[in-house]
Amino acid sequence: MSDPILSVRNLRVTFPSLAGRIEAVRGVSFDIGNEKVGLIGESGSGKSLTGRSIMRLLPKAAHPVADRMRFDGKEILSLPEGEMRGMRGGEIAMILQDPKFSLNPIMSVGDQIAETCRIHLKLSKREARARTLHLLEQVHINDPARVYPLFPHEVSGGMGQRIMIAMMIVARPSLIIADEPTSALDVSVRGQILRILDELRAERPTGLLFITHDLNLVRRFCDRVLIMYSGRIVEELPASRLDEAEHPYTRGLLDAIPRLDRPRDRLATLQRDPRWITEEAGR
Amino acid sequence: MIEVEDLQVFYGEGRDRFHAVRDVSFRVEKGETYGLVGESGSGKSSVLNAIAGRHSDWTGTVRLAGAEVDPRRRNPADRQKVQIVFQDPFGAIHPKHTIGGTIAEPLAINRRQNRGETVDALLRQVGLPGRFRYRYPHQISGGQRQRVSIARALALQSPILLLDEPTSALDVSVQAEILNLLQDLRRDQGLTYLMVTHDIGVVGHMCDRIGVMKDGRIVEELTKAQLVRGETAHPFTRELLSESLLG
């Protein structure tokens, strides 16, 4: 692989607690190039914290350290906050699960996108409006002029997610962190959102970190998969070969999914092995 | 066990009146699991809410365990025939009530005796330790909370359970445990399930028959075998299948 867009080595995120420090992310290393990387794990595995560390959007109490967290030649963790703020929503963008919580509820969706255009691209009011309508069209909103004045509560989940994407691509980011972007959406809408992400990546090289607990989605959509368990990456493999996964945790997850092509009377349940928490990924 | 004929469900008044469910008919035999699938807004939850008695603005016929129910007035006997388990185990349980109190509430409302012993038995049935009755919802995991919702739904020994996306908020590993629990309960207690979900994999695993809903109507009815073999006649079902079927 040529120079990765993002390179992370030995990322650790700790929280203070009454019983000493708790390490929620425990030495995670990966690179993202011009590709779609799926980061899979269950609730509490540290996958979202890993994504948020890259944006430096962690809870106040969290303390992230890494041997390396390099994006575009810069060490993210040691950047001054002012410079980081320019990077967020600029070169690095993030989409979250529920657009309802990410959008400002008392500002029309068009004005919110236009505001982003004015801040990041220094456009005039009129230019920002024209750019916004164009962006809405780019994310396949049929009637941008009708959608522009709507408020977040007036749009559907799929529409909201498209608005988030429109806002995100204002500054043409080279790294997108998508944290469960489609989990709240219907399957057909989910397909549309994924196609929009693909179209954006076809325009320019973009790394995508796709955080999800949906193995089927990753299998079909991503290039590479990282499987996280208890704050570590326990396995890494090409998405197309997910079925050949060897780690017992990944195997357990795969076996627990009900599938039409493999009907069973009972679903296998995950038998957790305490060794998974301590042993290093085999690589 | 559940017979629905010509169900029409409405929301709103006057000019805003919205016809959410149109001419829906289906029947579920005793011990069977029937799945309603479709996208958000297709009316599947409206059907569930009409049957559950949570929404009263409907016409048509709904028979539960042989007896017709009145849209506007449910007698206590009707109410005890059916219980519902919701998607979000965070929202479905009162955060300031203990687990024991939550499970005992339907028992108290219906003035049942020996409530303490019944709560113990219910916790055992859903695979939770007895000491959990003293805990609060925030002290247990999402999967455990869904077990509590199921225990509460079982409390009145209702023969029919309505399951509204019971596992879509859970991790796959936890989902498998809850689905297995639901299967065991159905077999051991002869329960009848009506399940709403958008996950075709879950439907194929759990349901004997499936009704596919679109724009308030059931556009196609399939058996499990037909679903597994992909024998669908309606283009919408095929679209649902191709979007969710992965290999």
Structure, explained:
By secondary structure, chain A is an alpha/beta fold. Chain A is globular and about 60 Å long. Chain A has eleven helices and eleven strands. Chain A has a domain at 1-89 and 211-283: Rossmann fold (3-Layer(aba) Sandwich). The model of chain A has no long low-confidence stretch (mean pLDDT 89). In chain A, helix 4 (109-121) packs across helix 5 and helix 4 runs parallel beside helix 7. In chain A, a hairpin with a 2-residue loop joins strand 10 and strand 11. Chain B is an alpha/beta fold. Chain B folds into two domains: 2-81 and 158-244, P-loop containing nucleotide triphosphate hydrolases (Rossmann fold); 95-156, no CATH class. Chain B has helices at residues 44-52, 76-79, 99-109, 115-125, 142-154, 172-189, 200-206, 224-229, 235-244, and strands at 2-11, 18-28, 33-37, 58-64, 67-68, 82-85, 160-164, 192-197, 209-214, 217-223. In chain B, helix 3 packs across helix 4. Chains A and B meet through helix 8, helix 9 and helix 10 of A and helix 6, helix 7, helix 8 and helix 9 of B.
Distance between the termini of chain B: 36 Å
Order of helices and strands of chain A: EEEHEEEHEHHHHHEHEHEEHH
Biggest sheet of chain A: strands, sense, closure? 6 strands, mixed
Q: Report the top-level CATH class of the largest domain in chain B.
A: Alpha Beta
The rounded Rg of chain B comes to: 18 Å
Helix % of chain B is: 25-40%
* Helix-residue proportion of chain A: 25-40%
Pfam family, one (chain A): oligo_HPY
Organism (chain A): Wenxinia saemankumensis
Family (chain A): Belongs to the ABC transporter superfamily.
Membrane topology (chain A): Peripheral membrane protein
